Amino acid sequence: MEPNKGLVSALFLFFLLHETIASPTPKPHIKPRPPPHHPCRHLTFYFHDIIFNGKNSKNATAAIVGSPPWGNRTILAGQSHFGNLVVFDDPITLDNNLHSAPVGRAQGFYIYDRKDIFTAWLGFSFVFNSTQHRGSINFAGADPLMNKTRDISVIGGTGDFFMTRGVATLETDAFEGEVYFRLRVDIKLYECW
Amino acid sequence: MEPNKGLVSALFLFFLLHETIASPTPKPHIKPRPPPHHPCRHLTFYFHDIIFNGKNSKNATAAIVGSPPWGNRTILAGQSHFGNLVVFDDPITLDNNLHSAPVGRAQGFYIYDRKDIFTAWLGFSFVFNSTQHRGSINFAGADPLMNKTRDISVIGGTGDFFMTRGVATLETDAFEGEVYFRLRVDIKLYECW
Amino acid sequence: MEPNKGLVSALFLFFLLHETIASPTPKPHIKPRPPPHHPCRHLTFYFHDIIFNGKNSKNATAAIVGSPPWGNRTILAGQSHFGNLVVFDDPITLDNNLHSAPVGRAQGFYIYDRKDIFTAWLGFSFVFNSTQHRGSINFAGADPLMNKTRDISVIGGTGDFFMTRGVATLETDAFEGEVYFRLRVDIKLYECW
């Protein structure tokens, strides 16, 4: 009898556990909150934006393609550039040197969305096609430019970055007038497949 | 022998369960479907959009910055505003009163994308920097404006809303002509970290 | 005593397993990597884009609404259309026939973002309201048009596609001049709720 009893306990335990593990639980998807979160992947890059100003056609990597009624598409508008839509295809480098060999392209747009201070909304991708990285990382979010660091969302990825999600911290590393600026991007991925 | 037998059952059970739990399963990521899903976080806000019309420069929180060939950037175009790109920086309030103290800013754009009825595509963020909320929630999706309620995606978040995902239900709460409209946003987050 | 011993082992095992399963683990969210990943849902559609060119007002499903300083909004600009923002409301069909009964609408925008080759950044939704599908799928990502296939991200969904995520592979199935093009979209969803 004794071993049977042990077996019964074990079987009871099995069903108990099985229930706990396998049944569709009506609980919300609250993920564990380890303090703090550790990224499963961490990457740092720089990208370099040169806005077309009517004279720099050869070097420009970005252009104003939308403007408010009071603006035009050659000079960023007054009122904190509110309403300027800028499209870009910027080189990505591993260090802060514009002339380093690019490891990919940052492609997408930003749109200045506030009249009293500089803020923008960003939608763009990092597109890689090198020996080191192949695939893309997609970003979206608000960029309050005057803050030293700003967090946006990594909303997806493809190739080497298949299905990834995370947070990217932007930092304006340098700028020259209203034509050139360089961003440092610290990418922390928290969902890796 | 008896206790050993119990132990053997238990160990067998352990490996059985271990296999079930820990092995990389080649199954697709079908999440449990508790009927219905319960959000892990639920928030309701209002935001207020005042489109620049050439006369309301002081109060306007939005401006037309793109238009179809047959339109301009001061008056929303015919054919259901098809082709108008609007950028906004709208106050977020807890109730439906435009003059309540804002708790954040709704920043981003919408673009009217249909000729025969009013529909738009939205990309925007809720940006919070108050004692109650700090961080951002990022949204994207189609907004068939003529429907009483419309669902868009919460595609990510930062700060207090780190890595969140969910669904936001939009409802046009009020509007005045083609200048002012107020949206009620019911944010249901299903992934909370 | 014997059965007790078995029970003790079993209980010990329970707590051991319980600890393993339920405790908040400080490990990063590295999801299992079954080689290869299998989608939990797989859908294929076609959509049809007819760009307004000043003469096709009746049939056009898309229009240029932003352009670089050197362009206009009736003809796609030189330099690989760099800076052209196009908004669309395209019919979705199950086969490659423009005249098949549409099963939904592809709504959103693309913006050409490179001067030397054709590339664009896409933000759009598939909106379904039929007996077969109800809800929306939201997409974002870079589209290097000259590649035979291009992967973008499925960043969320609503209705029948509640909370989904995945990867969509785009392929230019046909085009006529710079007015009509047809895309084949292979949607692989890896997170299904």
UniProtKB/TrEMBL annotation, chains A, B, C:
Signal sequence segment: 1-22
Alphabetized UniProt keyword annotations: Apoplast, Secreted, Signal
Domain of life: Eukaryota
Regions crossing the membrane: none
Biological process annotations from GO: phenylpropanoid biosynthetic process
Compartment(s) of residence: Secreted, Extracellular space, Apoplast
Cellular component terms per the entry's GO annotation: apoplast
Subunit description: Homodimer.
Family: Belongs to the plant dirigent protein family.
Protein role: Dirigent proteins impart stereoselectivity on the phenoxy radical-coupling reaction, yielding optically active lignans from two molecules of coniferyl alcohol in the biosynthesis of lignans, flavonolignans, and alkaloids and thus plays a central role in plant secondary metabolism.
Designated name of the protein: Dirigent protein
